Amino acid sequence: MRKSVFLGALTVAGIMATAATADTLQEVRDRGAVNCGISTGLVGFASQDANGEWQGFDVAICRAVAAAVFGDQNAVNYNPVTNQVRFEVLNSGEIDLLARNTTWTFSRDVDLRLEFTGINYYDGQGFMVPRALGVSSATELDGARVCIQKGTTTELNLADFFRANNISFEPVPIATASEAQQQYLAEACDVYTTDASGLAATRAAFENPGDHVVLPEIISKEPLGPLVRHGDNEWGDIVRWSLNTLIAAEELGVTSANVDELAAGTDNPEINRLLGTEGNLGEMLGLSADFAANIIRAVGNYGEVFETHIGENTPIGLARGLNAQWTEGGLLYSPPFR
Amino acid sequence: MSDTQTNSSVAFVQTEQIPASPPPASEVGIINWLRSNLFYSIPSSVMTLLAIAFIYWLSSIILPWVFNGVWDASSIRDCRDQLQGATGGCFAVISERWPQLIFGNYPADEYWRAVLALIGLFVALAPVLFFNLPRKMLWFTGLFPFIAYWLIWGGSLWVSIFALVGVVAGFFVFRALSERSFFGAIVAGLFATLLFWIFLTPTLANALSAVIPLTLVSVESRFIGGFMINFILGTSGIALSLPLGIALALGRQSNLPIIKGICVVFIEFIRGVPLITLLFVASVMLAYFLPPGTTFDLVLRVIIMVTLFAAAYIAEAIRGGLAALSRGQYEAADSLGLDYWQSMRLIILPQALKISIPSIVNIAIGLFKDTTLVSIISMFDVLGMIQGPILSSTEWFGVYWELLAFAGLLFFVFCYGISQYSQWLERQLNTGHR
Q1: Cβ contacts of A316 on chain B, cutoff 8 Å
Q2: What is the C-alpha to C-alpha distance for residues A143 and B287, in angstroms, rounded to an integer?
Q3: CA B295 to mean position of chain CA atoms
Q4: Are strands A222-224 and A121-123 parallel, antiparallel or unpaired?
Q5: Mutate to test the interface with A, among B288, B301, B374, B402 (most CBs of A within 10 A)
Q6: What's the whole-number average pLDDT of chain B?
Q7: pLDDT digits (tens, 9 = 90+) for A233-255
Q8: By CA distance, what is A9's nearest residue in B?
Q9: How far apart are CA A238 and CA A326, in angstroms?
Q10: Which residues, 6+ apart, have CB-to-CB distance to B370 below 8 Å?
């Protein structure tokens, strides 16, 4: 007991120390690179190409922040972190931001002293079944054997869903996504459930993806986004508005192809403010006036990032769905650049 | 008629030896071998046929998979297109990603340094492993750890040089004191080395590299990965845990209650805790105990934990060897008037270590394979590389068997080599009468 109090006190002291001295932007500038925490590997969101370069939907956030601060998307030290240690690594100051498909929840935001700076992907838990099973809705899954990762929120969501619909299931516990794929293909379970993006990626890797369907029900909310430590709001603002730049650029029709042309000045004052030809938004953040233009030049707008890494023309083939702009029936809604 | 008689006698008596007839077909060659080994009874015939059917079934799966494999493709989908539904492995992933599997994220321009360090390792190990090589080669063995550190991590050569000077200083302290007490001299020598490393090495290295910068591009630990990190952890863990294990084994036999107590508690604690727990402590918990802002290299932390773990097991293996020696050996050493350290060095340990070779090799092989556990603490060793970045790339998601078979092959080559060496060593050291 005494020891745990002691350890806890040490931890808090460590966090306070980092929080008190935090001028993350200055540290990042001195270092010459953003320390970015990413997944150790998640199809479409973070993976290495043959040259050892990290690529992916989450990695694009790291690149965007680096482009905003330095004008160079490659000024990033990638720190791959596992599920278990990600928050400790962030709180210990080893990384400046975490862009690692992390669900924004109350307890993480409040109790773990973290600050979510927005949502870059709206996910939710779904079901995948073999087409041969002839199931068209998750409510028809009474008595099914379900492959599910133990000890995750998906497990709790699943129990809730089946209880609410008054049907039963038999859980088949598995440890990793690759094990799930093997078990599901070996027909050790009838249904595989995890986040919809994960289902799409798993299905895309099958030899005959057409033999499997993802059911329409989404049974939970999983808003994924980048996050920073409590205590340095200026740095949090930079990450938040880097993400908002991606979203707003798509809404305003700014792409990596036309950004140079638009940065010369347009009739649309919002585009002018975003790209730094009017107003002093960049200066307010402590960055250069063209920080948003640098982001878009480097990684493109939200739609381009989506299409490059997880969109319908990639093997993963995710539809925009909830992740469309609010003007097109989705949830993406950037506050105005004003 | 004498002629006729002679002739007839010639006709009846064989004067030359009849050449040996070939043995019956059923007693020689392949047929006899088959009969006596595979079909000598009905149950054995049944088992043989079953085994043949099993081998045929197994190779009908594996051989097409291996020989029909695709070596040149851009993604798993490309592989499937090329195979057109036929059985075959997608080995293109290995031909595209082998540098990542071997070197992790080590910068490609610096691969030669890692290769050079590997060659150096074999040169350095040779005189230790084979006794009839010139003893002067041991000088290189002594220098090698410092050279290898410089080659792999880069930075200034002066750090390595002054680390070496620290060891030499420790050795002179040991020499000066060894007349009084062997044990005290060892402790004092180690202490002197540590003091030199902590207080003098950084300052001196900085000062001299400002004058003559003998530097290689420095590579951070987090870029070192793939099979290379398994190899670094395995070799340094084995090399460091052997002396520590010997010390622990002797300490456990000691008559001094404090030393004995410390050794027993240490060994039993380490043996009672899973290696993965120690690795988690090294990667996560240690940060809470060190003063804030201290950076303590993760690879170094893991090497320490792996060494402590292996040392406890090696200590027990050696204790087995010590226990197997007859009391007469100890008494003989005492009757010659040797002190404790002399008797251990000259009489007891050479015999005890020889007895313990199989178990020590067992532990060494186990340790080498256990280094793959570091993938769980986000180090990209060969398995971490497979499970993380490679399997999560959109090109190769779903290619498991080919990558795991490659990793298995790498480990097999080295583990089988270690095992063969230990058998050779046992034959060399076999002085018993049979």
Answers
A1: 394
A2: 47
A3: 29
A4: antiparallel
A5: B288
A6: 87
A7: 999 999 999 999 999 999 999 99
A8: B288
A9: 23
A10: B275, B306
Q: Give the tens place of pLDDT for each residue, B323-360.
A: 999 999 999 999 999 988 889 989 999 999 989 988 99
Q: What is the predicted pLDDT for the residue at A22?
A: 64
CA atoms in the 13 A half-sphere facing the CB of A319: 7
Å between B106 CA and nearest CA of chain A = 9
Which domains does chain A show, CATH number per domain?
Answer: 20-122+224-328 (3.40.190.10), 125-220 (3.40.190.10)
Distance from CA of B386 to the nearest CA of A (A): 10
Cβ atoms < 10 Å from Cβ of B165: 18
In terms of pLDDT, which residue wins out, B288 or B250? Answer: B250
Chain B CB contacts of A42 below 8 Å: 392
**What's at A1, amino acid-wise?**
M
pLDDT of residue B10: 58
Q: How far apart are CA A268 and CA A270, in angstroms?
A: 6
Phi first, then psi, for residue A273 (nearest 5°) are -65, -40
pLDDT in tens, B400-425: 889 999 999 999 999 999 999 989 98
CA atoms in the 13 A half-sphere facing the CB of A284? 11
Q: Which residues of B touch A (CB under 8 A)?
A: 75-77, 80, 96-97, 100, 105, 108, 222, 283-284, 287-289, 292, 376-378, 380, 384, 387-394, 397-398, 400
**What ipTM was assigned to the predicted interfaces of this complex?**
0.75
**Cβ neighbours, 10 Å, residue B239:** 15
Q: What is the CA angle A311-A315-A320, rounded to 5?
A: 20
Residue ranges of the domains in chain B?
24-67, 226-434
Q: Which residues of A touch B397 (CB under 8 A)?
A: 43, 201, 204-205
Q: Judge if pTM exceeds 0.90.
A: no
Architecture of the domain spanning B226-434: Orthogonal Bundle (1.10)
d(CA A153, CA A155): 5
User: Kind of pairing, strands A76-81 and A34-39?
Assistant: parallel
Nearest by CB: B77 against A79, A85, A315: A315
Candidate from B87-91, B203-207, B363-367 with smallest mean pLDDT: B203-207
Beta-carbon separation of A41 and B292 below 8 A:
no
Cβ-defined contact of A182 to B287 (cutoff 8 Å): no
- What pLDDT is recorded for position A25? 92
For residue A297, what are the contacts with CB-CB under 8 A and spacing of at least 6? Answer: A67, A256, A259, A260
pLDDT in tens, A121-142: 999 999 999 999 888 888 888 8
Q: In this complex, which of A52, A88, A182 lies closest to B284 when CB atoms are compared?
A: A88
Which pLDDT tens digit goes with each residue over B243-286? 999 999 999 988 889 999 999 999 999 999 999 888 888 877 77
Q: Is the pLDDT of residue A306 over 70?
A: yes
E strand residue ranges, A131-235: 144-149, 169-174, 191-195, 212-214, 222-224, 227-229
Beta-carbon count within 10 A of A210 CB: 8
Shortest Cα distance, chain B CAs vs residue A44, angstroms: 6
